[in-house]
Amino acid sequence: MNVVHHNAAGSGFLSPTGVEITFVLVGLVVLGAALVTVTTRQLVHAALWLVVALGGIAVEYLLLTAEFIAWVQVLIYVGSVVVLLLFGLMLTKAPIGRSPDADSENRWVALGVALAAAGTLVWVVADAFRSTWIDVHPANGPGATAVTGSSLFRFWVLPFEALSVLLLAALVGAIVLSRRRPEGRDR
Amino acid sequence: MNDTLDALLRLVAVLVVFLVLPLLVGQTEHKVMAHMQGRLGPMYAGGFHGWAQLVADGVKFAQKEDVVPADADRRVFQLAPAVALLPYLVVLIAIPVGPHGFVGEAVDAGLFFVLAVMGVGVLGSLMAGWASANKFSLLGALRSAAQLMAYELPMLLAAASVAMAAGTLSLPGIVGQYHWWWTLWQLMGGLVFFTAGLAELQRPPFDMPVADSEIIFGAYTEYTGMRFALFLLSEYAGIVVLCGLTTVLFLGGWHGPWAGSVGWLWTLLKTAVLAFVVIWLRVSYPRLREDQLMKFAWTVLIPVSLAQIALTGVVKVVTS
Amino acid sequence: MHLIYPAVLAVLLFSIGLYGVLARRNAILVLMSVELMLNAVNINLVAFDRWLGDGLHTGQALTLFTITIAAAEIGLGLAIVLLVYRNRGSSDVDRLTDLADPGRPLPEQRAPGGTAAGDEKAEATA
Amino acid sequence: MTLTALAALVPALPFLGAAAGLLLGRRAPGFVRPLAVLPTATSFVLAAIVAARQGTGPATDAAHRLTPTGSVPIDIALHLDGFAVLIALLVGLVATCVQVYSLSYLRDDPRYPSYAAVVSLFTAAMLLVVYTGDLMVLLVGWEVMGICSYFLVGHYWETEAARAASIKAFLVTKLGDVPFLIGVFALAADAGTFRITGILSTASAGGLHHPTVIALLLLAGVAGKSAQFPLHTWLPDAMAGPTPVSALIHAATMVAAGIYLVARLLPVFTASAAALAVLAAMAAVTMIGSGLAALAQDDIKRVLAYSTIGQLGYMAGALAVGNRDAAVFHLLSHGAFKALLFLAAGVVIHAAGTNSLTAMSRMGNLAKRVPDAAWTMGLALAALAAVPPLSGFFSKESVLRAAEHAAQGDTAHVPAAVGWTVLVAGLATAVLTGAYASRLFLLTFLGSGPEAPDHGKQPVPMTAVLWVLAIPTVAFGGLAYRRLPDWFGGAPLGPTLTTGVLGTALALVGALAAYSAWRAVGTTRAAVPLGAVVENADADVEPALVEAEAIATHKEVYGDIAAADDPGDPGRLLLGPLHGAAAHGFRLDAAYGALFVRPVLAATSLVRFLDREVVETWVKGAAGAPNLLGAAVRKAQTGNVQTYLGALLAGAVVLAVLVAVGG
Predict the structure, then answer these.
(1) Do D639 and C101 touch (CB under 8 A)?
(2) In B, which residues are within 8 Å of A87 by CB distance?
(3) Which molecular function GO terms apply here (chain B) (predicted)?
């Protein structure tokens, strides 16, 4: 059987232009899902649209040949973070259907700030990277797991360990915060 | 063009496997449970040994009315079975069946890919439970989410141990590195992986989220007809995927006599044996309590899997 | 690929997240928006890693770190939100105004009976 | 032990005693008395040993430089010569006597621990001043004495008089200290050193650029410390302190420091004839004025205080005629008998229950109540009036002899006019001294009237100390006048016929005048009823309390601390129309009040107005404006985190745009 090893799902099938077009299309999906996430009045729907956006971002990582990151994205974000968020929504009695007050009174200010930020940043970014190209084709690129792993454990060991301590602290913190005090003692 | 055709063919093959194997497992479960529990019902349909029972079930599901509760969130309610089922289909692509590229798509970080995508399946349960607008459903959804969170970690750790041993994340690569003594070396990890997998599938004895005697089938309470069938199908597909993964990771996949020619048969055989064990466990063990379940994950599985990782590391360093 | 695609995607995603953080009322929705912003940063990191192609793979390593920190942040954030909800029966950001100048009226009540039910819940869970 | 180490121990011991006393005073009351007496007594013994070993030999110098200062160096220096060791001996003797006396005098005083510690510190500071060879170190002791006198004079701070007196003592001496400090710096700048030996050699080599200015600046400080006109006014008021303190200040420490300093730095002064003239004028005015004032005082201690001022005037006069031997001789003998006078006065006040001469003169049998005090006080008053052969006679004659010498133009650097001034003033003062000494004795001990209250026997420490001090009072002058020139290395100090006869005769004239005046007004005294005796006949009450009460009630009874409206007072007859003015120190305080205090008060009220009405308005405005602004800004504090964050991010965007456009 003729075996073809593709180093990254997706990119191997596509020509450079194809990658570009796919990237833009998926990007539009991501943006759309993100927009719905921040505007929908149904709380759980927001979380589900967030899944779409995050999954789309994982695909974008694949297109950028960062395969390992992509799977981490799926594992952590889609598999855990969103589940936690849904968990939180359900524990705080998220209603089914539209909440009339999902947005606060700040929404017009928020819209202004967000639009201004978007405008400024797009302008700056477009101005800065007008003629910059990245090569997403080379085989066995930086996204390969082996490469990422060796760089992570060779050059980034110290930050990695520091991160472990941070995670431990977060774990302890979350436990302390969510533990119920025994009866008779003040909160 | 040849590449595209090749890829297309593989996808079709995977789809076929996905449609066939879970049904086989379902039928086997019927029969095995009937025999073990001395139940006569499933032995009648179709005459010989009740061969048509599965077909009858399918017809029954198809006939039933597709009910959506009035207060439910319709779209989410309808979407949930698909979300529960699809990840297993995607995962099947990456599981190698035989040597020489007998696999849907050899993903570089295959192990990681598989675990990541399997984690998405729980979203289906959550969506179903919440969208049903039923307190039992919500409880079931919360339970399954908690269970998934708790068992994801030992499962990942056990898988990491194998990846360490093989020095690769690619599933065909792992099988390629296999030696027979690995089964003993990685025994603890294998048991942890298999147990945690059972828990993620919410199979007995880890089936509190769907415990019918406590919360009336949990997240699936409001489901009827084909949608309910899809949930059942996702459960059986999960069994297939879990058994296949365990086979690939811990039992050597296609390794066996005449592996070059009938390797795929070995894989299927081992998977089938494991599937039988899953069914067997369902019949033999009582259900754990919710707190026992959590305690089991945190105080038994995680330490054992960590010990396995330590052992793997030590052996790796010593032998290299 | 033109670097501007991921860059602009990141910018727009970031701005959407920004809007969400500022405009959403429910604390968990705010957390979601924060996740969007973090992801926008991650896209940037990955894209620039690809562009610079340095031997350290700084961008990807940092992305992994960001994801990890985001996971920790969501855990702690949810714990805090749940605690707030348990104590107050509401997780609306704009009602957590204890630090405000006293004597200013609270925003209108959430929904008829909503707070009362929340209080019951708070007592039940406390 | 070396001489230097011994000498260093002399000031160190009382200092350590003071520190220990202050630290332990509250916690270990049992240690307080030993800690007060023993270090001082040991220090006295050590001073005696130092004096014996130093003897008449050449001056001993030792110096240790702690750290370089960058410009004029400062040394921890010792300079031991005849002047220093003898004065240190005097200081040790008086301090020991005062401490022993205080044991009884302040027996039950709750503030005794701090009192004793401060007295020890005072002693240590004076010893430091005496022994040191460096002006900067001397200045340290000088200032420590100032602050100690402030504490001690204010010991009875419950009374208005004590509070006012302590502040006055502090401020007036400080007024002199400021120019003094400048003078010291000017001196050091010219000489290039703070070492006294170096300064003296520079001065005698004519190396000082502005000797007159420096001498006058130094004189200001000396006038403050040694209570010379016009800065003497604090001394009479300082009588509001306990009697032992008065004895200490007047006899040995504070006031002696100024004289001692001029004696040490005499070449600096003799370099300027003008300074000598000023000093002579100052001394003359001080002598005569204080003599007149002493004659009019009602308070027994104030009489003694003015007499101190007068005797200090003698010393200053001796210095003005360039004879420091005579000055120091008089300082030594005066120290002994003046300490005796004050301590005896303390006994008398205790016995009489009042400090008013008017009251005492109407009290019978006071002499019998306190025979020790009466005898020793009589001796000391005779010494004060320079009756031969008591020690005061010899020392005073040495001063007069020096003045006569200068008046004849025989002393180098000293103008004859200066000599004449001092001589005439000294002789006039001799009359006055004889008069007020007699008046004091007559009014105190020879009064008639109801019996003095009976307090039983006076405590032994108090009377014993009196007799101890009586020995030098009687014998020191006669024994020492032949030897002292060896110690001082100077001219002979013996009395000459002219001045001796003249001075004694004049003193006798004064005494006789006082006696006859006393006899003349005796009937009036008997006729005019009273003047109240402070009724506190309780025998157990400690002496200091009696004195404190006497001071506190004096004004209520007589209207004025300085004078009582008493026609039976011989001083009134002798002074005639001058009496009123003399009783109030010639109204110098009033003059100061008009000249300095009132303008200052006016200025302060102006400043207060400016502060309250003008500055305060701005301050209030400055406070009000932020208040208003704060109220405005507070409106923005909604408590809504999203609003804050929105504003923050909007600001960030604006900044980014600015940077992007600007950069």
Answers:
(1) yes
(2) 126, 142, 145-146
(3) NADH dehydrogenase activity; oxidoreductase activity, acting on NAD(P)H, quinone or similar compound as acceptor; quinone binding
Residue B286: cis peptide before it, omega within 30 degrees of 0: no
Report yes or no for ipTM above 0.95: no
Question: What are the CA-CA distances from residue D616 to residues C62, D605, D606, D623 (Å)?
Answer: 59, 15, 14, 10
Residue of D nearest to A113 (CA): D650
| Residue among A45, A82, A145 whose CB faces B109 most closely | A145
Chain A residue numbers with beta carbons less than 8 Å from the beta carbon of C15 are: 114-115, 117-118, 121
pLDDT value of residue D162:
82
What is the number of helices (H) and of strands (E) in chain A?
Answer: 7, 0
Residue range D516-530: mean pLDDT, rounded = 71
Is the minimum CB–CB distance between A10 and chain C shorter than 8 Å? no
B106: tokens are 């050899």
Q: How far apart are CA D326 and CA D592, in angstroms?
A: 33
State the Cα–Cα distance between residues D372 and C122, nearest whole angstrom. Answer: 94
What single letter denotes the amino acid at residue D414?
V
Look at residue D605 in the predicted model and tell me its pLDDT.
Answer: 92
Nearest to D653 among A109, A110, A116 (CB): A116
Domain chopping of chain B, boundaries: 2-319
Q: Tell me the shortest Cα–Cα distance from A34 to chain B, in angstroms.
A: 18
A158 by Cβ neighbours in 10 Å (0-12 / 13-18 / 19+) ranks as: exposed
Q: Is D71 on the interface with A (CB under 8 A)?
A: no
Residue found under tokens 């039910």: C117
**What is A11-100+134-143's CATH topology?**
Four Helix Bundle (Hemerythrin (Met), subunit A) (1.20.120)
**What is the three-class DSSP state of D436?**
helix
**Highest mean pLDDT: which of A23-32, B167-176, C81-90?**
A23-32
Q: What is the pLDDT of residue C126?
A: 39
Q: Please give the mean pLDDT across all residues of chain D.
A: 81
For the segment D95-136, what is each residue's pLDDT rounded down to a tens digit?
888 888 888 888 777 788 888 888 889 899 888 888 888 888
Query: Tokens in use for D292?
Result: 């007149």
Which residue in the set A113, A121, A123 is minimally distant from D650, CB to CB? A113
Q: Which residue range(s) make up the domain with C102?
A: 4-125
The minimal CB distance from C24 to the residues A31, A103, A180 is found for A103
CA distance A61 to D129: 89
Chains C and D touch (3+ CB pairs under 8 A): yes
Question: Could you tell me which chain D residue has the CA closest to the CA of A124?
Answer: D660
